[in-house]
Amino acid sequence: MNKFRRVGWISVLLIMFLAPLRVYAGLIASGTRVIYTEGTREISLMLANTNSWPVIVQSWVDDGSGNPAYTGAPFIVLPSVFRLQPEGIQGLRIVYNQTPLPRDRESVFWINLYEIPPVSKNMPEQSRLQLAMNTQLKIFYRPQGLSPAPESAAARLKFRAVQEGGRWYVECDNPTPWHISFTDIIVRHGKTQRHVEREMDMMTAPFSQRRYALSGNIPVTSASEIQFYYVDDRGAILNDHTRL
């Protein structure tokens, strides 16, 4: 292993221990999300193959649908197809294609990393498809000059309890230009607490409201407390609390 390759692999391992990473199949990315600030020429993302076998990776950006034929993405990922050896590393270049995007809020898209492992020639096509895995990472486009700062967005969130169809929901009102990605929301009333039901993507978009279903009934009053866990720009999980 040459010096550059060795240093690159060590860097990826250090990132694994120093920052929260999302691991899908055998691919590890150097972050759980990508922030693209207006005016940046391009940004990079490092990948590592932790498998003991090589993989073919196809990369693209879409709206979260996982569709490589999607044509509305404002980003291009290079290389779009590559082979990654066992314990190999690969740098990806992410380039903005100048597609106009809203200037009063950040926009979100998804980077897809479709991983195809080697298979036997005699393996049925259906089995080959079952072995393929797709990693999705959020990429945020941020116009210059948005306010308030993203670090203060969580403190501006407002929550209320809503009952509909015999069920209780927590409604989050996000008055900021930033996307807020939750990992958990808890309602506490006295010694009783209820979590919201987990969803694949618990994100509240800018200047919008979203409801999250509670996992059970709980008395909800103005004395009830909301504790919420959310993901920051580094991929770390932070928490805050407020009253309903």
UniProtKB/TrEMBL annotation:
GO BP: any one term: cell wall organization
N-terminal signal peptide: none
Keyword flag rRNA-binding: no
UniProt xrefs under Pfam families: PapD_C, PapD_N
A GO CC term assigned to this protein in UniProt: outer membrane-bounded periplasmic space
Domain Pili assembly chaperone C-terminal positions: 173-237
Subcellular locations according to the entry: Periplasm
Span of domain Pili assembly chaperone N-terminal: 27-146
Domain of life (superkingdom): Bacteria
Keywords: Chaperone, Periplasm, Signal
Family: Belongs to the periplasmic pilus chaperone family.
The protein's name in its UniProt record: Molecular chaperone
Organism name: Klebsiella oxytoca
